[in-house]
Design brief:
Two copies of one chain form a homodimer. Chain A is an alpha+beta fold. Helix content of chain A is about 20%, strand content about 45%. Chain A starts with a strand and ends with a helix. Chains A and B meet through strand 1, strand 2, strand 7 and strand 8 of A and strand 1, strand 2, strand 7 and strand 8 of B. The first copy, chain A, binds a DNA duplex (15 and 15 nucleotides) through strand 4 and helix 3. Chains A, B: Cleaves both 3' and 5' ssDNA extremities of branched DNA structures. Chains A, B: Keywords: Cytoplasm, DNA-binding, Endonuclease, Hydrolase, Nuclease.
Chain lengths: ~240, ~240
DNA sequence: ACGTCAATTTCGGGT
DNA sequence: ACCCGAAGTTGACGT
């Protein structure tokens, strides 16, 4: 069924799976997408639903009269007209007890052309790789995504003295990124071929605690101006 | 305006802010909530919209004819009937160029009674705090959320010999949790008042890599059975 | 399939 | 307001 269904109705919701959750009866927006996913929204909390079921999952709709026959645990709310049971393969379930329905609209949307993004971490890494002078005069990039046993280092560089430097690139520099770079440096500094490897933590923004931790570990911090870098990039495009 | 608005329409979307993104013209589901948030959905990707604007933000709707007057950069798609400009205070914007509208429905949902959850990390921590024998005979809990300079340790305990033990509680134990506990232990072991502090990593599930890293650092791992603990809890309720 | 890491993460709680 | 950590995180990518 390749369509979206939008429902506004009184409903009560019970979820069981990685946790259990309950929503008392109230009027809400229910969206069923072509992928089978179901989400239940209140009129706040931005785009996050109160409760949901991710695809793949299957929905079974039962009239309240029949659902009643199987109900042994508790009385069914008399307002309930039908029960939607949505199950995933992992055993999660979302039970929506639907009362009065105010809107029930189904339509086809077709395939979406998809989203084009610009400005994510990968672009920042690419721009830095093309402009190693951002780190300092005489710096060069040895390799992007330099593989180690525990994962890829974003940029492996050499400084003006030829010393290796591992660069961790983040859009927003937080403590996790420093931990990540620390793990790489610990490993790389056991490799005699590389000699002593220094670390640079490069991000558009660096949180104070991340900077403190980095400094404490002898890692340099570099705040990168994405727009300026992109400008450099465009300037080069014009020159050559 | 305390209401939800559900629109199904042809639209093109342009976002600028922390990154830039573009969606070509296609039929989509647009949801405007009472908090002012706007989200644009395709019929897949579960509950995540293709693009959105989080509250607080303000929406200005302009008929295409007028929007055209201000258009200097590019021709406006002739299918566009009105332009929604949604702006946040931080300068992010979401521009939705709306074409043919298939559905436009607005209604009040009222205040939602809200979601009740059970089984999150806080509950696991509370159950462990009430049942320190889970860690071992003769263990006691000194404090929950024991504050350190770099954040709160989930549980500070004493073992059967009276030695301090820092416990990190997770629903799912992964490498980040081990790093977190390691930072706490590094700090606490500099405090002469505590003496030597050991570490315990307690979770419902522990990933192999997390276990390996923990063991390597002298941190004990404990897999906790949430249901059994809850059972203990209920048993106690009945006994006293 | 699993592990790793990014995300316009979002969301809630504390200081 | 910022900072921190949890989340039913979700999602993409590589092994």
């Amino acid at each position: 069924m390749d369509a979206v269904r939008v429902v506004i109705a009184e409903c009560q919701v019970d979820y069981g799976g990685r946790l259990t959750a309950h929503l008392p009866m109230a009027r809400r927006l229910i969206v069923v997408k072509a992928d089978g996913s179901v989400s239940v929204h209140a009129d706040d909390r931005a785009y996050k639903p109160l409760n949901w079921m991710s695809p793949p999952c299957t929905t079974t709709i039962t009239p309240a009269a029949q659902a009643d026959l199987g109900a042994t645990t508790a009385d069914i709310d008399p307002r309930v007209r039908e029960v939607w049971m949505i199950r995933s393969k992992s055993g999660d379930f979302l039970q929506i007890s639907v009362g009065e329905i105010e809107l029930d609209y189904t339509t086809e949307l077709g395939i979406d052309p998809g989203l084009r993004k610009d400005g994510v971490e990968a672009h920042l890494q690419a721009l830095l790789a093309e402009n190693p002078a951002t780190f300092g005069e005489g710096w060069s990039v040895v390799q992007r995504e330099y593989m180690t046993a525990i994962g890829p280092v974003d940029l492996l560089c050499r400084d003006e003295l030829g010393c290796y430097v591992a660069v961790e690139v983040k859009r927003r520099g937080e403590i996790d990124g420093v931990e990540q770079l620390t793990r790489y440096l610990d490993l790389m500094n056991r490799d005699p071929l590389l000699g002593e490897v220094r670390g640079v933590f490069a991000a558009q923004q660096i949180k104070p605690q991340a900077r403190t931790l980095a400094t404490d570990r002898g890692i340099s911090c570099l705040v990168v101006d994405y727009d300026a870098l992109r400008g450099l990039d465009h300037a080069e495009d014009r020159l050559f």
